[in-house]
Amino acid sequence: MAIDLQPWLDGIDASMVFHPANAFVISCGTVTLDLGRGKVLLIWNRNLQIFQLPKGRRNIDEPMLNAALRETYEETGVRATPLKLNIATRATPPTVDEGVDGAPQKSPQITEGHMSTEFVGACLYPDPQSDTKALKAVFFFVATADSTATGESGTQEAYEKLEAFWVPISEVDQKLRFASEVAVVMKAVADIRKSGYTINSA
């Protein structure tokens, strides 16, 4: 007996909404850690008087990971290195093994066990800085850097008043203003440990 797919397709159609590209703000940032010293890189926003994770808008045609590393450098003067992790992701694995009958296996809905530099998570919210209605999506990537190295100066935009701070991971929930950014850091730490890396205490 054939299955009537129309109700299912109608449900998809009813829930699908088109948004033009100018209704989105794509921003990228990092959770940059010094694993040997148990610290995470934050910025102190002097304009808002809050701690935040480094992040900023992606340039046209710029890969998201590149944007995250560039924004981190521009806002903090720190050159971070992306860290490969075993991240649970809905991105498809690079190759799909054949099944027992020789036919290609269906890609899993959630892929684990592949070391990659995929984004660890994202924060979504209405963009408070847009004059027109726009949804902001901030994609965060995990990176490492040396907290004892001196950051470069003169990397910020003229309007930015930001200061870089290395903070013990144990103090992140007390420092960061936004709970979702705390959640991003905790997810990064969990994925780092799941991937076999050691994080020392500050």
Automatic annotation (TrEMBL):
Q: Which InterPro entries match?
A: NUDIX_hydrolase-like_dom_sf (IPR015797), NUDIX_hydrolase_CS (IPR020084), NUDIX_hydrolase_dom (IPR000086), Nudix_hydrolase_domain (IPR051325)
Q: Does the keyword RNA-binding apply?
A: no
Can you supply a Gene Ontology BP term from the record?
ATP biosynthetic process
Which superkingdom heads the taxonomic lineage of this protein's source? Eukaryota
Which PROSITE patterns does the record match to this protein?
A: NUDIX (PS51462), NUDIX_BOX (PS00893)
Q: Domain Nudix hydrolase, which positions?
A: 16-191
Q: Name one Pfam family in it.
A: NUDIX
Q: Which residues form the signal peptide?
A: none
The alphabetical list of record keywords is: Hydrolase
List, in alphabetical order, the Gene Ontology terms for molecular function in this entry: bis(5'-nucleosyl)-tetraphosphatase (asymmetrical) activity
SUPFAM superfamilies for the chain: Nudix
**Protein name, UniProt field:** NUDIX hydrolase domain-like protein
- Classification of source organism: Eukaryota, Fungi, Dikarya, Ascomycota, Pezizomycotina
